[in-house]
Fold this sequence. Notes:
Blueprint: E1 3-11, E2 20-25, H1 33-43, E3 48-52, E4 61-66, E5 71-72, H2 76-90, E6 95-101, E7 104-113, E8 116-122, E9 127-128, H3 134-144, E10 158-161, E11 166-171, H4 174-179, H5 184-194, E12 198-203, E13 213-219, E14 224-227, H6 231-243, E15 253-260, E16 268-277, E17 280-288, E18 290-299
Parallel strand pairs: 2-3, 4-6, 11-12, 13-15
Antiparallel strand pairs: 1-2, 1-18, 3-4, 4-5, 6-7, 7-8, 8-17, 9-10, 10-11, 12-13, 13-14, 15-16, 16-17
Helix pairs in contact: 3-5
Amino acid sequence: xRALKIYQVDSFTTEKFKGNPAGVVVxxxxxxxxxxxxxxxxxxxxxxxxxxxPDGTDHEVKxxxxxxxxxxxxxxxxxxAAHYVRAIERKLNSSTVFHKIGIGILPVEINxxxxxxxxxxxxxxxxxxxxxxxxxxxNIVNAIGLKADELDPRCPIQIVSTGHSKVMIGIKTRRxxxxxxxxxxxxxxxxxxxxxxxxxxxxxxSEQKDILTHGRMFxxxxxINEDPVTGNANGPLGAYLVKHGLVKHNKSNFSFxxxxxxxxxRSGLVNVTVHLDNGEPEQVKIGGRAVIxxxxxxxx
Length: 300
């Protein structure tokens, strides 16, 4: 029997029961894929992060991510949670840690602030897919529960990725965003056609000057009807906003804060920074705060 130390962490918030909950297993070495899947299913968060010792000299920690149904290559909120727990346990000072995840070896910035931490992670390569043709676009819009005149005409519906792809869907009003009730079976069927599991609906209709966007993310094909606050959606959104000229920037950097989760009572904030090269988005970082809800131990 092994004793596994497990944390429940709410990411992108400092309030318990807000933001996005993630499981974190801090001593995952020796676990099989099936055992990790069982643990993720038992925790029943959208993702659980499993922390391993490094398997090379080019990184300090290895992390794998599981939903209740499958392994995924990267997860923003579970990364924030994992590094937050690791910083707390190791009493880290502000520093940069290199982690090995499903999309490669990338830096994570640990920022110590008044005996607490904020975490900023570099995401993977930015990829833009061509906008969908009319038929697929209409199918997505219908499945989300939108009408054509509710879409933001500046925003093409397309897949954008910084390691874990999302369909970007811009709409005009926050009111409509909060009213959405998608057809989850239709979205699941569409995921096989478009080869993307996540649908991020966002609006720039914000009443708060320090919040630029509000969003909701649906991914029923991987067992997540709605994800409260999604780093792998808000990060690509930053690149998308720059790419389509929807925001002003200084041609080298663009930063903003995105809110997500309000409609399901788990509001959280994601800080996004886009680094530009000749006016084009080149690299995305996302970050935020976290809070530990509980820690426990299981025998396996």
